[in-house]
From TrEMBL:
This is Glucose-1-phosphate thymidylyltransferase. It comes from Salinihabitans flavidus. Belongs to the glucose-1-phosphate thymidylyltransferase family. SUPFAM superfamilies: Nucleotide-diphospho-sugar transferases. Keywords: Magnesium, Metal-binding, Nucleotidyltransferase, Transferase.
Length: 292
């Protein structure tokens, strides 16, 4: 098991998804058959991370606790950190400083979905990278909407440009960040941007200037989905539904990951299946035990 700790940033108001997020956190909306937060949680689990903090708003904290509990059902240890106001992604490292206690971290945005054969191996490679930070580049058709990797002539990382008018490459930086234990200290030196936020790009540039930022490119076999709009939320649900029905396998299933890694046993998996009764999710868990 890695000593790296996990952070899921699940704060914000979700105004782009109004009116459906007026009464519920965006990260608890359904993506096909599971709450959205199950998918980023599963990414951290695939990275071998078992101690995870969920950063959320004071008003949504209880909803997350009802949904996720303390994580023991998956062999995890979950804790919750309140974010009074969304002041930029780098703020997460300030809020989580006590939780991290000097440990390296993997932070994933609560509205991001990752899928692909070989993902656990790529995450393990990032975990082994050593001092510094690792981000993941994903080829997109509209890089001007994202932070974009600027490569030098030898293929090394020259910079990360936030929402450029002329993108230096088609590779966007995804919402998954592996950073070493110095991230909170570095985050304290980040000054608010013109829009008043502590930008993750500014934090990453600190690593880059010291030659400590690595970029792993996700190839054609990967999917990276951002569920921040009504259309992309629907697309993500349809994507998961198609994979699940065509392959007969779950996407983003914490129970399956925990059981396959030995973090929970057959009895715990069976107890989880009983909670879901005879619906498709419960039937899938029973099928893992050969009890379908």
């Amino acid at each position: 098991m890695t000593q790296r700790k996990g952070i899921i940033l699940a704060g914000g108001t979700g105004t782009r998804l109004y009116p459906i997020t007026i009464g519920i956190s965006k990260q608890l909306l359904p993506v096909y058959d599971k709450p959205m937060i199950f998918y980023p949680l599963s990414v951290l689990m695939l990275a071998g991370i078992r101690e995870i903090a969920v950063i959320t708003t004071p008003q949504d904290r209880d909803q997350f606790i009802r949904t996720l509990g303390d994580g023991a059902q998956w062999g995890l240890k979950l804790s919750y950190i309140e974010q009074p106001s969304p002041d930029g992604l780098a703020q997460a490292y300030l809020l989580a400083e006590d939780f991290l206690a000097g440990a390296p971290s993997a932070m994933v945005l609560g509205d991001n979905i990752f899928f692909g054969h070989g993902l656990p191996e790529q995450l393990a490679a990032a975990d082994r990278e050593g001092p510094g930070g690792t981000v993941f580049g994903y080829r997109v058709a509209d890089p001007e909407r994202y932070g974009v990797v600027d490569f030098d002539i030898s293929g090394g990382v020259r910079g990360i440009v936030e929402k450029p008018e002329q993108a230096p490459s088609p590779y966007a930086v995804t919402g998954l960040y592996f950073l070493d234990g110095s991230a909170p200290e570095r985050a304290r030196a980040v000054r608010p941007s013109a829009r008043g936020e502590l930008e993750i790009t500014s934090l990453l540039e600190m690593y880059l200037r010291e030659g400590l930022l690595h970029v792993q490119l996700m190839g054609r076999g990967y999917a990276w989905l951002d569920t921040g709009t009504h259309g992309s939320l629907l697309d993500a649900g349809n994507f998961v539904r198609t994979l699940s029905e065509r392959q007969g396998q779950q996407v983003g299933c914490p129970e399956e990951i925990a059981w396959s890694r030995g973090w929970i046993g057959d009895a715990q998996l069976r107890a989880r299946a009983e909670i879901f009764g005879k619906n498709g999710y419960g039937a899938y868990l029973r099928g893992l035990l050969g009890e379908g």
